[in-house]
Structure formats: structure tokens, C-alpha cells
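Open question from group meeting: does this chain pack into something compact, or does most of it stay loose? Before anyone orders reagents, we agreed to write out a predicted structure and look at it together. Recording both the input and the output here so the notebook holds the full record.
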Amino acid sequence: MKTAALIVAAGRGTRAGGDTPKQWRKLGQDPSCPRVIDHTIRAFRGSVDVIYIVHHVEDTDLIASLQDVTPVLGGATRSQSVQAGLEAMQHSGVTHVLIHDAARALVPHKTIAAVKSILQTNPACAPALPVTDALWRGDTHVDGTEDRTGLWRAQTPQGFDFNLILQAHRAFSGTAADDVEVARAAGHSVTITMGDERNFKITHAQDFDRAEAALRAAIPPDKDKTQMDIRLGNGYDVHRFGAGDHVWLCGVKVPHTKTLQGHSDADVGMHALTDAIYGALAEGDIGRHFPPSDMQWKGAASHIFLRHAIDLARKKGFNLANCDVTLICEQPKIGPHADAMRAALADIMSVDLDRISVKATTSERLGFTGREEGIASIATATLIKT
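C-alpha cells returned:
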């Protein structure tokens, strides 16, 4: 599965005001602040194999400032721009594509991961939020109401099997609001996954204030750099296999012919990471904070432990710089689930996806992991106090 992000940035964004198209404007008052499109690209780094940017002919000089992306000249309409991007990646080996509006700069990593996960078993998927407000018809006065049952607010990225959406665009004529409309016109089913309120589209001038406020809330204030304190911790955990049909690994339920046994849900990856954070804080291990002799933790979800560890770090003034989790096993295969695991850990700890690494290795059929008697995990966490 080779996944591409196709970021649509060919519009002019006139409703947002200003002399520069909204995707090229900075989010923040400081001249060094990243632009809208910089935030959008950053959201997909590490989640896809390649990034394509569809741009306007007048933005050729601006597109040259972007690194590690493939630029594509857009068309007169959104649909034409998307098709141009799809045609450009036709012989690249891409199997799946996530089509995203450049103006949705704050798309959460978990939304991207959710779309990718659903695409493993479905031809098309898109995030959306259910309509909860009352709906009126009218101009200056209310002429009537509409039933909001079954109505959704569409978001991006909208994910598709590559060949499916390419052929759908080739067969489509006219204009479309989004690529879901194009896919449905070709007779394809599109699965809905839950969107996120942070994934709003910057459309009007006031949306810049909203986006900047969201970014300020997510970034801790600067402190005296001379007070920097860097901590490194490591963790190790093992759980044996027992009878079952799935395992929990780094917050993801993975189908398997066995299950992992333990006092909690036996999420060996999350346990190792939790101990790594406790270790960096010199706060012992999971057993110290959640004793196995205490039956309230029997069968507990491991995100409870990890969230406690990261919350404790923040109470002590530390932020997670990065973490690296390695799962050691012959089966199940971790690769197809690694992105979902990274997204789950990022969501639990409320950190950026690019700070999370999840990978796997085998033990070359040696030892208990080689005999498929269980799974081991090692993890490293770096904490920084500034």
C-alpha cells in the first residue's frame, strides 16, 4: 500500500481577503511564522509516502519554496485540478490517495490515520461531522426549516483507491463540490469516518484568528532556554500468548490467532512506552503507580497508564520531545497497523504524530518471541523541560 497526499492549493481564496491567496498567508503575526500550506504539509509528513501539491500558475515561484513535494499545475476548477494531480501520479506506484484542501491546515493526525485505516478494507472513505444545529431556509427571513437527520458536514482528507478515483474523474463532467461527489457519480460507495472540529477550512478573514488561537493554545509559552532539562528513559515489557482472536498493541486492536495475557489488556508496546516515560522522570514503573495486586486495574485499558505517565511529566514541567517503540515478534505483522498505532499514541498523549515512532522486528526465530510464545517491546522516550 503506497499512499499519496494530494493537497489542492490552486484556488484564489478571495473570500478570505488580503493580497495573497489564503494558502500562502502566514498563520501568526511574526514574519517567521509558517504559512497555512506549511502547516497542512506538516500534518501529512510521516503519514504518507509522497506529497503532491496542485497549484495555480501564478504561484509557481511560491511552490518552489516547498521541499520534498511534487508540484502539479492545476486547472480552472477544483475537479480539473484534482484530476491533474491524479494524472501526474499515475505511474508512480501509488495505490491509495488522500485528497485534502490546503486551507484545512489543522487537520489532526488521528483523522488522517482513521481514513488510511478504513482504506485498507474499503474503496473510499471521508471524514465528516454530523449536523447538530437547526437548519433554516430563507434569505432575510426564515421561510422554513429542514430536517437535519442523516446530514453531515464534509471534511478532508477524502481517501480513495487510486485507480477508482482516477477513472471516476476521467468519466466525470461538470463541477463537483468535492471528490466524494465524483466517486458517487461513478457508482462507488464512500464510508464515513468521524471528523474533528479542528479540521475546519479557512475560508473567511476571521478564520485566520480562529486558527491562530488554536495554534497558540497548542504551543507552550517560551521560557528561559538556559533552564533546559533533557531526560531520557527506556522501557521493556513482555507478555505471553494465550487463547484468543486479537492483541492490543500501541492502542490498536489487531486481529490475530492468539491474545496476549496480562493483568491489564496486556498492551506490551504501550507498557514499554509508559515505563520509558516513568523512567525519564525517575518515577519507577507501572507497577509502582498501578500495582497488579489492586484488582481495580485487572483488565484495564493501557491508555490509562500512558496518559497518567504523560500527565505526570507535564505536571513536572516536561514535554515529550519524541518516543520510539519497537515491537519484537514474528506475528502478527505490524507494518499495516504502524500508522494507526502512531496516531493512537499521539492522540493519547496529545502530541504531534511526527514525534512518535512505532516499528517492529523479529528475533530471527530465536528465543520465546521466535517460537511465537509471546511479544516483547522496548521503548525510548525523551522529555524536555524548558
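Observations to bring back to the group:
The longest helix spans residues 205-218.
The chain is about 30% helix and 25% strand.
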